[in-house]
Amino acid sequence: MEPHGDLNPDTDDLPLRANTNHILVRHYVLDMTVHFDSRVISSSVVLFLEPGSGVRTKAGAGDDIGHGTGDGAGTTDAGGSQERFASGFQQVDAIEDDTKGLEKVHGVEERDKAEFQVVADTDNIQSSHLWLTTNDSDFTLVLDCCDLDVSKVEELDITSVSAMLGLQPSERSEVYSLNPQAALIQRLISMPSSQWRQKHQLFSLCSRAPGAQDGSSLHFHRDKWSLQVRKKGVTSPQDFPRAVRICYETRPTGGSVRWTKDQDNRVCVYTAGSPINNRALFPCQEPPVAMSTWQATVRAPSECVVLMSGEEQAVPTEDGDTHFFIWNYYVTMAMPASTFTLAVGHWHQVTAEIPPALESGTLHSVSLPLRIISCSHADYPCRFTEWSAWSQRVIPHRVFSPVCLLQKAQIGVLKLLPRCLAAAHAVLGVHPFPRLDVLIVPAGFSSLGMASPHIIFLSQSVLCAGNPGSGDKGLSLCGSRICHEIAHSWFGLVIGARDWTEEWISEGFATCLEDIIWAQAQKLSLQETTEQFDLKALLRWRRLSDELQNSREELQVLRPNMEKTGQVSNSGSSTVKHALNPEKTFMQVHYLKGYFLLRFLASQVGEQQFIDFFRLFVKKYHGQLILSQLTSDQLVMLLELLLEESELSVASLCALQRTYSLQNQDAEVRHRWCELVVKHAYAQAYGDVEHFLVHDQAMGVYLYGELMVQEDAEQQAVARRCLSLVQEEMDQSARRVVEEMVL
């Protein structure tokens, strides 16, 4: 296994240890039971894995396995009986009876008990009994994990699921014969999005398959930040099991979920948007590039409601053994595991009705495209390709709240939500997700709001203090916050940052769009909109100025990794700089600096043109992860514009060189950089000019002339020195031209 190097868990940087360049989780199947009495969630998670294409495989180009896309670019006790585990996803009835061996899913036979004994040294270190029998030459699956008590890790016998036999190739290759499990999982993962329902049924059936009966087992070791899994004798990701089940329990103090009481003094639990994300809820691959789909079964007391990231509204069924209710959710769009969200509590729903004015289209609406757009993302059932989605201005939505806040939720959230959804559609177009739940979370929630796929958490602080007859007075905070969180559906969720340190991509865009969408929802005039924008900008400038004066400089940088943004180790591991620093949690610099950058751009091109840019950006990049680095063509344009400036300070040139690592860019970029160095006599980078003239002779001819025309002795010496080094090997025509300029 690759060493973790300088990933130091004692600093304020968060380690992302998953080896996503070696192997990726393509789908998670979770089975959870919520125990309020002990404040734990007993659970199993099944990982469906695909080895990365960057790692050499034994399979040939036409074989059934080894087609990964690893671009680096994704024992329960009480409540965990085998019967309850087998009862999940009951809607799968057409092929469900074909599964073999379900009675052994959670059972451990006597001969196997020694294999799964757990040796626990400390709270942060845990190993299976036979972990020490493995060695570093065995391939290691590394998952991000903390504060979980793992009881068992096993390979699943997918060949026992008779419904999977339909995925067998008509002509079995040698590779299939050698590893039918891998071939079947690869074919399952590769099923097209048009067959997503069948695909999820098969994932569900496979997740309940018995453990592999080949006499071997999987061994695991858990430290503070990771869970490591090996199969003795398996040395490559291609030979590693493709379907792995992990049985575990969360801890009451685990950082990913918060056990508390709501405003009615009723117990509840929810994912609180912790800096460690979901690694204390289930073992997962946390780097954003590990895009995956998931489906989950959650058992909770019958009086509770379970809300989760999921594309369809769940209809609970009763578990006959425990009288708990069973809730099933799923997603078909691959997203980072950090976006998985769960909330279980005694909340009440207030039914929302869409006002006729919104349904009939009296608000300004985005026009329908002349043709359905062509998407650039991986295959999933995308709403941007559905005609019906383009005209759906208000998606189905629900609001949940404690009883004591129902009236305030009705006055504020319920009243504003359809207006804000319609306004967001008018500004940005298709809603990326088909439905939305909004939950008023407990008072201890440390933010005004948090957006996840299909669900928004709102703080009680945004609720208006008015009464039913007070009109829109006091709704500004609630409305603008709803608009901010809705904007995250586009910027933050369906378009995400490939490097978590670039929070500004999500928060800066959402803050900017918050104002635009809220003004649209209020139906403000142009003058009223301008005045509201200006006032918001002034308030934010004061807030940013105060923060810059009263916080450490290293926490104020939008791209703390600088030119290394987006870079990971050979295995795919990395760190999120300052993610564990409690001071950073409450800073708004990434909101405000990003907002002011975007407002500046809007002032340059015009408000409507900038909104048009947002729409085009969404159409092009939805379903993808992005970085803020400039492309080479953009860098060329930037440098050419800077060449038009009469003066540039040494500090500016130094920052430019350091930020964009210009000496390491392609020849077009380096050519403009050298021109800039010569024009402003930036002597510290004359070495870059010399290197360009020697190694890029095809492009450097006229750079000699620029060095000579400045009549700077040092620059002229550079030109003569470079000519003397290369003149013997130069093309005769080029040599004649250069000699005329230099000699």
Automatic annotation (TrEMBL):
<dbReference type="GO" id="GO:0005730">
    <property type="term" value="C:nucleolus"/>
</dbReference>
<dbReference type="InterPro" id="IPR016024">
    <property type="entry name" value="ARM-type_fold"/>
</dbReference>
<feature type="region of interest" description="Disordered">
    <location>
        <begin position="58"/>
        <end position="79"/>
    </location>
</feature>
<dbReference type="InterPro" id="IPR027268">
    <property type="entry name" value="Peptidase_M4/M1_CTD_sf"/>
</dbReference>
<protein>
    <recommendedName>
        <fullName>Peptidase M1 leukotriene A4 hydrolase/aminopeptidase C-terminal domain-containing protein</fullName>
    </recommendedName>
</protein>
<dbReference type="InterPro" id="IPR042097">
    <property type="entry name" value="Aminopeptidase_N-like_N_sf"/>
</dbReference>
<dbReference type="InterPro" id="IPR015211">
    <property type="entry name" value="Peptidase_M1_C"/>
</dbReference>
<dbReference type="InterPro" id="IPR033577">
    <property type="entry name" value="AOPep"/>
</dbReference>
<dbReference type="InterPro" id="IPR014782">
    <property type="entry name" value="Peptidase_M1_dom"/>
</dbReference>
<dbReference type="Pfam" id="PF09127">
    <property type="entry name" value="Leuk-A4-hydro_C"/>
</dbReference>
<feature type="domain" description="Peptidase M1 leukotriene A4 hydrolase/aminopeptidase C-terminal">
    <location>
        <begin position="608"/>
        <end position="742"/>
    </location>
</feature>
<dbReference type="GO" id="GO:0070006">
    <property type="term" value="F:metalloaminopeptidase activity"/>
</dbReference>
<dbReference type="Pfam" id="PF01433">
    <property type="entry name" value="Peptidase_M1"/>
</dbReference>
<dbReference type="GO" id="GO:0008270">
    <property type="term" value="F:zinc ion binding"/>
</dbReference>
